[in-house]
Design brief:
162 residues; alpha/beta; Ribose 5-phosphate Isomerase B, Chain: A; globular
């Protein structure tokens, strides 16, 4: 029997070599949420590029950024957040604690969570992920800000009149 996932239940997961160990733990954590997890690699902790695997995850979310999400993990989380935010519609947030995860969802409607495998523990990652998955976007004035952001992306030479 074919199983077609609800897109809102789909989450993409990727790391580089420095994030591989935490990615393995994150897969277990995500199992508690009954999500359709797509592990985009790598399959081991051999050297792997954050730019490449971050692009895989962000590219997947960019196909439908209002419905899809990803968790990207490298050593610090910085590389993954840099590459992810290059993709249209992706709003990647590097979070080191649950408070930042909550704000990334409530105020920024983050659809990509970036984690640092060398800077947070599995327990902290679990707290961050749980918060990130259950926290809703507040909308309202925060949506106005995201609309403004989208306008700046659509107009490459956008700047305030001087």
């Amino acid at each position: 029997m074919n199983h077609y996932s609800n897109p809102e239940k789909t989450i993409f997961l990727a790391s580089d070599h420095a994030g591989f160990s935490l990615k393995t733990a994150v897969k277990r954590i995500l199992g508690e949420f009954n999500l359709d997890v797509h592990d985009l690699g790598p399959e081991n902790d051999e050297p792997a590029s954050w730019a490449e695997y971050g692009a895989y995850g962000a590219g997947a979310v960019a196909r439908d950024p209002d419905r899809l999400r990803a968790i990207l993990i490298c050593g610090s989380g910085i590389g993954m957040s840099i590459v992810a935010n290059k993709f249209p519609g992706v709003r990647a947030a590097l979070c080191h604690d649950a408070a930042a995860a909550a704000m990334s969802r409530r105020h920024n409607n983050a659809n990509v969570l970036c984690l640092g495998g060398r800077v947070i523990s599995e327990k902290t990652a679990e707290d961050i992920i749980h918060t990130w998955l259950v926290t809703a976007f507040d909308g309202g004035r925060h949506q106005v800000r995201l609309d403004y952001l989208q306008k700046t992306v659509e107009l490459p030479n956008f700047c305030k009149d001087q």
